[in-house]
Specification:
The chain has 314 residues and is an alpha/beta fold. It has a single domain, classed as NADP-dependent oxidoreductase domain (TIM Barrel, Alpha-Beta Barrel), CATH 3.20.20. Helix content is 35%, strand content 15%. The protein has 10 helices and 10 strands. The radius of gyration is 19 Å and the shape is globular.
Length: 314
């Protein structure tokens, strides 16, 4: 993989670009925008694309990648593509067929990274959010360690080059790490992470186990109405980030991304605007001082933008 990116080495030897492009698209935004945005992101220089079955845009993301391959802009091996196993497919006999469904949507032969999207098995079926008559989620009794064994088989079959998890806490990670007969440990844990929720303890735990932390919502999320309380504080309006943006002659968004990259956190940034995409890729062109990193550490308030009971990665 050749690009202007920095890379982080995963515990299975594969390289992941330190900055990725997120493709979650809310219901009110036409899927065609995801197709165009992903193409723009690749043109801007992004080589790490993050999607998921639950986002329901795999077809558009795959088409964008294939179009850029056909144009000669990139080769398949230049792109690091992530998708995710949704909670309704956690039964071990459904895992590989779910990945194969994602690959059919993408019209690609493999993904670079396949994640368990959330550590809560839900009732199997085509309904992404199965609920009872009271609107409460219908859960399943699957042991996610059994799901992990099926994930390992997907890696062995070459359908996913690397496998990991998303939205796991350290106790849930330990359940997999301590599982008898573990063949492949998770290469990463993708979680909501930004200056208001810096995940310091989880980051330290992951580093101690050679697991990369991947941050979504790194800019305080896109504040989609379905998931985010519209009265919550706007991260990028924080006066500390604003002062640092002025000091370094960068945007507040770039300061927030640089903060993560400097901590060794792989960071996902999402935008539908070409100029913002290009700006975000400038993250490797400067460095924050130790004092300024500590100042941003001080912003932590363990504040989640997304509901903890079902954090959909955006």
């Amino acid at each position: 993989m050749n690009s202007k990116h920095s890379y982080v080495t995963l515990n299975d030897g594969h390289l992941i670009p330190a900055l990725g492009f997120g493709t979650y698209t809310p219901e009110e935004v036409p899927k065609s925008k995801t197709l165009e945005a992903t193409k723009l992101a690749i043109d801007a220089g992004f080589r790490h694309i993050d999607t998921a079955y639950a986002y329901q845009v795999e077809e558009e993301v795959g088409q964008a990648i294939r179009n850029k391959i056909e144009e000669g802009t990139v080769k398949r091996e230049d792109i690091f593509l992530t998708s995710k196993l949704w909670c309704t497919f956690f039964r071990p006999d459904l895992v590989q067929s779910s990945l194969e469904r994602s690959l059919a949507n993408l019209k690609l032969d493999y993904v670079d990274l396949y994640l368990m999207h959330y550590p809560v098995p839900m009732k199997q079926g085509d309904d992404l959010f199965p609920t009872d008559e009271h609107g409460k989620s219908i859960l399943d009794t699957v042991d996610f360690c059994a799901t992990w064994e099926a994930m390992e088989k997907c890696k062995d079959a070459g359908l996913a080059k690397s496998i990991g998890v998303s939205n796991f806490n350290h106790r849930q990670l330990e359940q997999i790490l301590n599982k008898p007969g573990l063949k492949h440990k998770p290469v990463c844990n993708q979680v909501e992470c930004h200056p208001y929720l810096n995940q310091g303890k989880l980051l330290d735990f992951c580093k101690s186990k050679d697991i990369v932390l991947v941050a979504y919502g790194a800019l305080g999320t896109q504040r989609y109405k379905r998931w985010v309380d519209q009265s919550s504080p706007v991260l990028l309006n924080d006066p500390v980030l604003g002062a640092l943006a002025k000091k370094y002659n960068r945007s507040a968004a770039l300061i927030a991304i640089r903060y993560q990259v400097q901590r060794g956190v792989v960071t996902l940034a999402q935008s539908f605007k070409e100029q913002e995409m290009k700006e975000n890729l400038q993250v490797f062109g400067f460095q924050l001082s130790l004092e300024d990193m500590k100042m941003i550490d001080g912003l932590n308030r363990n504040f989640r933008y997304l509901p903890a009971e079902l954090n959909i990665s955006v």
